Structure prediction request, 87 residues.
Amino acid sequence: MSEAERPDLRDPARRPTVDEIRALVAPSTPHFAQQTRNRIAALIERLPTDDPARVEGERQIARLNDLARQSGDPRGPGPRPPDPAGP
Prediction:
């Protein structure tokens, strides 16, 4: 769900919940992992370090960083072209 659909998520007086953090991360793909990571970082930046939503947000940010490094292709990178110099 986008911030445009939920403007209350941007209200500085409102505290995000663990469930909201998980809902943002759930549909993430490698292509959008960095955008999702940035949204979560913005939501948790003002929370105390021991807040459950911040702890979950930091955990999910690490997961999204790893996801962003993936190709998104379940088959992997594919075969390498043959070496023109030969074997």
About this structure: DSSP finds three helices and no strands in the chain. The mean pLDDT is 82. The radius of gyration is 18 Å. The CA atoms of residues 6 and 50 lie 25 Å apart.
